[in-house]
């Protein structure tokens, strides 16, 4: 394999994981970001995000010299033949994807590209954006160079970004240029992952369709979970039974308090926005969103039903991040839960292994942040499991329940081991989509 010279624009989850993994498979990579603090941190070989395995590979590949960081576009673009754009496309007020970072990236590239290049768009972008960016780029090019565009959406998950990049299920390469497509395949070839070659618009659509489908799968099982509660069935058994059917598959059928994160909420809304814009109704997506909105506040309703008025009640919240193994708070169910509880004048003490710092910025001081599950539980009327951190499965529940005022657990992620909990009974245990039980010691 020939190593290639790659520049990655944007050092968020996608850009950083991509850059590091491309260096790991032998390429020469420069990552660019306008955020000087972030770049300085990366130069010191420290990861700006919490992501398992990322810092090790950052240190390893920085020390070989294959991975470097800069805030200078001219410096990075002077180096690269392949430029990967991985800047954010956040959600704007009307649900549309905000393309301003991409537009800025196109302007920067137009100004500083000095050689024929392949521009790879990894950011999640509405169908047609690659073509729009190409026009923008070509319209402003300072130097006479040839630009080829490739749409290459990213499917990595936070918390397993490195593994997902190194062992992806597939790599989508959308391009109208066979040469560019071949070059990008060559870049990824050491990963030994199946390639799917498509036109640009289909590649863009694959990303939205995949995320919207997964989000819908989650909302579907959450709808079933709510029905299970009403009819006395167990959603874990139901999901298991469904998952055996290969046409359905067992992944993403975990019922709980809904999806959050930087992708599903915004991508479903962006796809819905596209469908409205095109006059093609897709109300299934509206329902996916509505179920999720309801689900994120499920525990609050359950607590109200069990405890009555929440004014003055103390709730221990375990978990703040939108899922385990990340400190990311974007669209985390904990935000809505914290706001709803405090609006009802409950007192909330929250503990998360890594996300408290970020949570403070989003939720603010309306709740108290503590350093352990035990501290959160002190004097609590109920315990909410909001994120399924492994640490919470391993808790010393005996000690925890002893310091609580009432021995009540609402498990929003169905992650606790009922048999182990039973040893610490009596406990009132409220999972999602499964019958609530009073767990008592056998003796
Ligand atoms: C997701 C996609 O999986 C990934 O392919 C895409 O590139 C970005 O968006 P991510 O947001 O990192 O990745 O997390 P993921 O593990 O997919 O979980 C998303 C949310 O769904 C989390 O809040 C999680 O708790 C929830 N979820 C997931 C469920 O509630 N049930 C499930 O069965 C699976």
Walk me through what this model shows.
The chain has 443 residues and is of the alpha/beta class. The chain has three domains: 5-198, Rossmann fold (3-Layer(aba) Sandwich); 206-294, N-(1-d-carboxylethyl)-l-norvaline Dehydrogenase, domain 2, CATH 1.10.1040; 297-439, 3-Layer(aba) Sandwich (Rossmann fold), CATH 3.40.50.720. It is built from 19 helices and 15 strands. It has helices at residues 13-24, 36-43, 54-63, 73-79, 100-112, 129-140, 161-166, 178-188, 200-231, 235-243, 264-277, 283-296, 298-307, 333-343, 356-363, 373-377, 390-393, 397-403, 418-422, and strands at residues 5-9, 28-32, 67-70, 82-85, 117-121, 147-151, 171-174, 195-198, 314-318, 347-351, 368-369, 382-385, 408-411, 427-430, 437-439. The strands form three sheets. It has a seven-stranded mixed sheet with strand order 11-10-9-12-13-14-15. The protein has a six-stranded parallel sheet with strand order 3-2-1-4-5-6, sandwiched between helices. Helix 9 (200-231) packs across helix 11 (264-277) and helix 9 packs across helix 12. It is elongated. The model has no long low-confidence stretch (mean pLDDT 95). Uridine-5'-diphosphate-xylopyranose is lined by residues 154-158, 211, 214, 218, 252-254, 256, 259-261, 263-264, 322-323.
